[in-house]
Amino acid sequence: MQLYANIFAYKITPSKGYQSKYIKILDAKELNFSDVHELSGLAYEDDTLYALSDRGILYLFNLNILHNKIENLSLCESYRLRDKKSQLFKKKKRDSEGLVFYKDGFLISFEGKNRILYCSRKGQKIKNISLPKSLQNDVFYVSKNKGLESVAYSKEYGIITAPELPLKNSSQKYHTLYSKKQVWKFTAQGAITDICFIDGDRVLVLLREFSYLTQRRVSSLVIVNLKEKDEKNYAKTELLVKMDSADGWKIDNFEGLTKVGKKRFLMVSDDNDSFFQKTLLVLFEIKN
What we know:
mainly beta, single chain
């Protein structure tokens, strides 16, 4: 039996309006489920939206997008992530963050105990994915909560992941995307919360910044080109939008990103299971 969410129209753009030649915000909704919180990873296929919670839970939603609007969203099923023996992951090992389709299942990235698992469509572990050597030791991460927030996959480049912040033993001025055979560096601006492929060579990166002192939030969307380099020999990047609460953007803690059409994407915010935060689902389009 499907459970329908309370979905409310939500305006994230500044009241004075905004102009961007790169992206268009098509729709935004605030989601209100009684027991669905901390969504941090998304994957979409055939009107089904898969959403991953930090709590180690995989949700399946039926999603209806009509005329560039999120018309309705209904929760169909949920699965708790399990190991090969069908045992639930212990709390310290269940902080699931990134989600992407892989073969007949998913790749799921975790922080705390940083790793990537190949799992079934019902969230059961099939096997561990070998990480690049630089990412194998947890002591090199800035903190337990700044680990592998994201994972992406393509046939050409294979599995790509990134720590939320640059590793301790690398320059803090540059983020790094890691694959088995190659790395791509680009200027750090905020923390990486998700990545997904736009097309064959371009990766869309979602970044966030937050000030506990002022409560200012910033979420940015950046394209990283895996084929082209800039004048400093780093991966060529293009800033699509910088959503800054100081400029009137009504944003929250955006952590999940997925492609839903040729140029259309969804992103979701993690409410941290807090009364003061929201689960926002935003549909947007890249213009070029």
